[in-house]
Amino acid sequence: MMDLSLRDLEYVATIARERNITRAAQTLHMAQPALSQSLQRIERRLGVRLFDRTSRQVTATPAGELLADSAMEILADVRRAIERTRQVGGLPEVLRIHVSEPSLVTPRRVLAAARANVPEAAIHQTTLPGDDVAAQLLTGELDLAIAGRVRGEGLRSLRVRDERVGVLVGADHPLAALDEVSPDDLAAHHLLSIDQTMSSWDTWVTDYLAHYELTPRWTKEVVFGLSTGSDVLSDQRTVLLTLESVSRDYLDGLVWRPMTPLRMVPWFLTYREESATTSAAVRTVLRVVERLARDQGWRTTDR
After folding, report:
1. What is the residue extent of each domain of the chain?
2. Which fold has domain 92-303?
3. CATH class of 6-84
């Protein structure tokens, strides 16, 4: 008789990935005590300890690492089997696509191209916390990610576009009078903060300014994306460090000024290497997006 259910394997894989019971419980949408009790039950049933626990994190034992790795493979195989069964039964292939900053021009154009060229597929768009994207690509819960580069063994990224970085400010803001803005020009101003559970933008900005020995002065306000902070900028004091395409949608009372020296940020389309072989829809999207980038004069390299 099988000792563990698929749900048990999902518990183990998620705990190993998160290395924290509380975060794992949040990911699984269950209470932390219930997950702890389930883990204890699994360990008792197997007769081995799977994780060493501290107050801050859990670390997989060798047995736990083995089971977690196997669990992720088994769960991915089950998902693929379900998907193939649905297709054989006449249902459309489902493409699950994570989109960072879904309101911006670049991801909108990529999604539009995908929908137009794989009409037989059901595209499910989602925006996940950045820390979850790689894991879900690897397990097959996601098929594609339109975002900054997502790294992981077994993942590949198509470089779609490089966008220039600049500042978006109110028309009466002091920086609006400049043709270009240097990092030193930002030192006296508060930068609008982006929610770090949904975006790594604040980290990128911090690293960017650290190169010039500067530390960002963040606002108390936090917004959920690069395109959602335009109302805050009407105070004529706040600065949003952002991409050039954002300025095309938010020029009513606002101005965008490029940073100098020139600084570019890339967009990538990331996918599981295996899916480029097994999924006709993924292959089509990759081909179409590469053509879109070429036709638009965007930079395209496969790395």
Report:
1. 6-84, 92-303
2. D-Maltodextrin-Binding Protein; domain 2 (3.40.190)
3. mainly alpha
User: What pLDDT, in 10s, does the model give residues 214-261?
Assistant: 999 999 988 887 777 777 888 899 999 999 888 766 567 889 999 999
How far, in Å, CA of 133 to CA of 142, rounded? 8
Pairing of β 254-258 and β 155-170: antiparallel
Of the candidates 43, 22, 60, 269, the residue with the CA atom closest to the CA atom of residue 144:
269
Distance CA 242, CA 204 (A): 11
Q: What's the pLDDT band for 263 if we cut at 50, 70, 90?
A: very high
Pairing of strands 51-53, 58-60: antiparallel
> Which tokens in the block code for residue 47?
């007769």
Report whether 272 contacts 143 (CB < 8 A): yes
pLDDT of 15-52, one tens digit each? 998 888 888 888 788 899 999 999 999 999 999 999 99
Span 90-98, mean pLDDT?
A: 82
